[in-house]
Amino acid sequence: xxxxxxxxxxxxxxxxxxxxxxxxxxxxxxxxxxxxxxxxxxxxxxxxxxxxxxxxxxxxxxxxxxxxxxxxxxxxxxxxxxxxxxxxxxxxxxxxxxxxxxxxxxxxxxxxxxxxxxxxxxxxxxxxxxxxxxxxxxxxxxxxxxxxxxxxxxxxxxxxxxxxxxxxxxxxxxxxxxxxxxxxxxxxxxxxxxxxxxxxxxxxxxxxxxxxxxxxxxxxxxxxxxxxxxxxx
Length: 233
Prior knowledge:
Strand 4 (100-104), helix 4 and strand 5 form a beta-alpha-beta unit. It contains 6 helices and 7 strands; from the N terminus they run βαβαβαβαββααβ. It has a single domain (6-220), classed as LmbE-like (Rossmann fold), CATH 3.40.50. It has a 7-stranded mixed beta sheet with strand order 3-2-1-4-5-7-6, sandwiched between helices. By secondary structure, it is of the alpha/beta class.
């Protein structure tokens, strides 16, 4: 993958957009280079073929203004913290030289999301070791590792106001037409499709900081600030 400022990891196409599309839109508008690496092609999903999901992911990438989108080619429904998967994530971190890594938190109803969260935590550390897998590129560890929240309640440490971007985010998520309004909803978590989940989640996190919509993230330990002005805007 090409060098970028922020690298977002998702287990399947649409995972990053559901949780982070507003944040990505904000970063791109600020001139930052943002890339997404989908661990799998989402080929085992109940709806949508591999080809349909690839086309939807490309359409969403165009709306987001991504620097690059890549699929790591790992097996859907079988993500695990193994050598193959770890090499793919370490390789992505090293090739992008990203300043910030954003991955799913390792607590979710979907086992692939949990596995990718665990993989990201391990890869974040190992990617910076000079003697770990030198064939994957020069060592590099991003400055910050954020986790985005999924389908389980986790207390966030950051909430980004995306109220002015909520409509634009919805248009991005609508690119995933195969995942919207299915006639049979038995496979859906809480009976909500991807857009419904994104809207409900963003309104909830927004209500906690007194805005219409927000995307929430978790960070281990304190984040560095030069002064308090960012907290008073």
